[in-house]
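Assess this one:
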Amino acid sequence: MTAPMTNTSARPRRVGRSVAAVFLGFIAVVILSLGTDEVLHLLKVYPPWKVPMWDPGLNALALSYRIVYTVIGGYIAAKFAPYDPMRHAVALGIIGLIPGVAGAAYAINRGDMGPSWYPVVLALVGLPCCWLGGVWYQARYPER
């Protein structure tokens, strides 16, 4: 009769910490993005809320800081990951892809919310930006 063997080298799964790491990255992107939007509305750079923003320059401005904030979100997900930081950064990108595609489909179907290219590009850049945030974290902390 043989005794059952356990694999003591396996990492314990920390699902709660993994969910929290991805959630922190997601919340960071949302708060930074909406906070910057609010400041730009208050400064009258953007039109009032609920007024479509058709100016390509303003849409490019919004896209530029959202790209930066999404990279930061990927970095945060990787930083707080209990293991495999890149997997957590990419998971954030995949999770963000769902509302991104839904938002793009909604905006295109409505047709009166601004240029269609903006939500499409926003949905497409989310996953690569989160990945880039994970790469940034791995470059700073290669031992993880």
Remarks:
- The radius of gyration is 19 Å.
- The chain has one domain: 16-140.
